[in-house]
C-alpha cells in the first residue's frame, strides 16, 4: 500500500463513508473511490464491503490495521519533526523534566528567568525519563532535566548537581532533633517502605542498597513517581527513599540523608552535535544553582516544616 492508499483507508475507517473520507481529505468522492479501488487491486482483496448501504471493514483489512497504524504514527512523527525543524531557533526554550524535578525546580527558576528576560518564552512539560529522551530525539523539547543517565549516542549529558537519596518519614517517626542528620541503613531493617516501580531508573540502586538488611524492609506498596511516594508517606503508609527535591516539597514529614550515602546526579540532556543559544547555558546555570541549594538544605534541615515529636522514637 502507498501512503495515499493508507490515508484513504484511515479516512474511511474514521468517517465510515466515501463522502465523509472525501470531506476529511478535501478531495472529491470519485477521487477517494478511485484510490480505494487502486489499493484493493494492488492488495488483491477488498478493504471494505457495502452492507445495507454502509461500508464495513473486511477481515483482511482488520488484519492490516496494526501495521497501518504504525505507518500512520510514523508519518505523524515525521510531520511533527518537520514542524520543529521549521521553528525559528532561539525564540522559545522548550524544557522538559521528570515530575518531581519540574515541581521542585521550574517555579522558582522560570519565574526568575521570565522576570529577567521578558522577551523570551519558555514551554514547560513533564514526562518520565524514557519519554524525555524520545521528546528530545523528536525535537519536541530542547533540554531535559532528569536523574537518569541515558546511554544514547544522540544525546549530550551534562551533570548539574550531585546529591543523595533521603529517607522520608511521617512527622513524629523520629525525634525532631534528628531531622537533617544521617540515617544509617541498618535503621531501615524491618521498616515498612513505599517502594519504587521497577521501571524507575533508581529502583535497582535502592534494591541493591537494601539487599543485605535483616530483616528485610517490608514493601507492600510500589509507586511510579516520587511525588506519589511522598503523598503515601504523608498519609502514614510507611517510609520512602526518594530524591531530595521531592522531599523538600513535603509537609508533615521528617527528612534524613542516608548513611552510607546513596548518590544521585541531576543531568541536563540535549541533542548531540548541536549548538545551543547562550540563553540555554545561562538557564541551565540557574537550574544547577537552584538544585544545589535544595540539596544542601536537606542536610541542614533548612526550609523544612518543623516536626512535632512523639514519645518513644529514635
Concise synopsis of the structure shown:
The chain is α/β, with parallel strands linked by helices and 314 residues long.
Q: Which descriptors would you attach to this protein?
A:
LysR_HTH_N; WH-like_DNA-bd_sf; 10 helices; 6-stranded mixed sheet; Arc Repressor Mutant, subunit A; alpha/beta; disordered C terminus; 314 residues; 23% strand; 5-stranded mixed sheet; D-Maltodextrin-Binding Protein, domain 2; sequence-specific DNA binding; DNA-binding transcription factor activity; elongated; 3 domains
| CATH architectural grouping of the largest domain | 3-Layer(aba) Sandwich
Helix content: 40-55%
What is the count of DSSP helices, taking H or I runs of 4+ residues?
10
The fraction of residues in strands falls at 15-25%
Instruction: State the strand order across the main sheet.
Output: 8-12-7-11-9-10
CATH level 4 superfamily of the largest domain: Periplasmic binding protein-like II
InterPro entries: LysR_HTH_N, LysR_subst-bd, WH-like_DNA-bd_sf, WH_DNA-bd_sf
Family: Belongs to the LysR transcriptional regulatory family.
Keywords: DNA-binding, Transcription, Transcription regulation
Protein name: LysR family transcriptional regulator
How are the SSEs ordered, and which strands pair?
Blueprint: H1 3-15, H2 18-25, H3 29-43, E1 48-51, E2 54-57, H4 59-86, E3 92-97, H5 99-116, E4 121-126, H6 129-137, E5 143-146, E6 155-164, E7 166-170, E8 183-184, E9 192-196, H7 203-210, E10 218-223, H8 226-234, E11 239-242, H9 244-248, E12 253-259, E13 263-271, H10 278-300
Parallel strand pairs: 3-4, 3-5, 8-12, 9-10, 9-11
Antiparallel strand pairs: 1-2, 5-13, 6-13, 7-11, 7-12
Helix pairs in contact: 1-2, 1-3, 2-3, 5-10
